[in-house]
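Before we proceed, please read the two lines closing this message. Let me know whether the structure tokens fit the sequence:

…
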Amino acid sequence: MTLAAAVLGLGLAGCASVEAPPAPAKMETAPPEQRPAVAPVSPERKRLIDAFGGEYRAPSAETLLNGVLAKLADASDASSQPYRVTLLDSPVVNAFALPSGDIFMTRGLLALADDTSEIAAVMAHEIAHVTARHAAQRAEFAKTAALFARVNAQVLDRSQNSEEVEARSRLSIASFSREQEFQADEIGIKNIARAGYDPYGAARFLTALGEWSALSASVSGARSADRPDMMATHPSTPGRIAQAVAEARKVGPPGERPAGRDAYLGAIDGLLFGDDPSQGVVRGTEFIHPKLGFAFEAPSGFTLENQSAALIGVGEGGAEALRLDSIPIPDSTPVTSAIASGWIDGLKTTDVETLQIGGLDAATAKAQGDQWSFRLGAVRLNGRLYRLIFAARTLSPAVDERFRASLDSFHLINARDSALAAPQAIKIVAAGGVDTADTMAARMAFLPEALDQFLILNGLERGVPLNAGQRYKVVSQ
């Protein structure tokens, strides 16, 4: 069983979440003349928005993206196609295109891009997927996959775990073949050059994407199968970067066209970075949800990822995992009854205990599977039951003690938690005469691998001095 399957395979009965907040205000970034009077809300569009945290509002970025999209539409061979860009409230770096002309970009992608030409390259790449009918071909593939899943479930009686099906669906929405990626790169680079942007922006962004993905994988220890990042859906291979440079050289040598860095940095100043506090934040091994009013600490060594459906954690190189979600619970239902109701399909719950955790009604139990052993925890808070599932290949007394300690750490949010969960944002600052990459990164000391994050966010190489007066991205609280 793979690590992703093990984590997603904590198969819970029923539909559960960490009670996602209402979606932010809608943002459409195509000029009025380029989008239909009434924008259709397709199931595929809704599924993508829901899978990546809802929509995100950023007026300054909206204005910039409007201008870029208008120029690209005029420069491409499909100016009659209605396009619109939707920003997604996700720190994951990704972008997608649908056959309808819908282009989706995460705020995480905006944070990584370093100038207008880079963001134009991403948008042109997605437009190229539409004009070359890659998105339509992918949609047909997704329909075929969905039909196969229905046949499997209804005819062959081979149902799949609903979370695994949904994870695969999200990946198929965004995936293109290697050949299609190269073709979209070629078309996109030609179009950004026609629109007046620096054609080398594509290679710069692909380079940053590869470095960011490698750093993220190193820090997290595992990539999410639920919300695939851009390296999973748009592979940034050395071959793609080399081709991007070769295509740009057909236009001219580097430095001939402005990259639009100052305008871009001004547009993303103040952009939310990392987790959205309204959806809960991860701070090391701590998870804090200011909106819902609780916090807890995972076992030492765990890496946490806050997904749309649940909080997922992985530890001990994949030999341990955890999941936190919530479901409604009537006041009349005892917590012990709820924890014994069969959370994990096909597994019997044993050793049920009644607890008080942080002054809250709670319970704990065990369950045993073929490959995994489970410690379960349940805490009642404000009409919901928060369910903590810890899994281990071998639930030794020492491992179980660590899991119990993590469960016992569940508590109502306090002043320290609130301060720790303060939102993080991109801030644009000018370098002083004595500033170095190290002094700039020191402003981001609360982040893991702060120096590497600073360098990648700003497209810098290690050891290269900063230019006094030039503006750079830092992450502030």
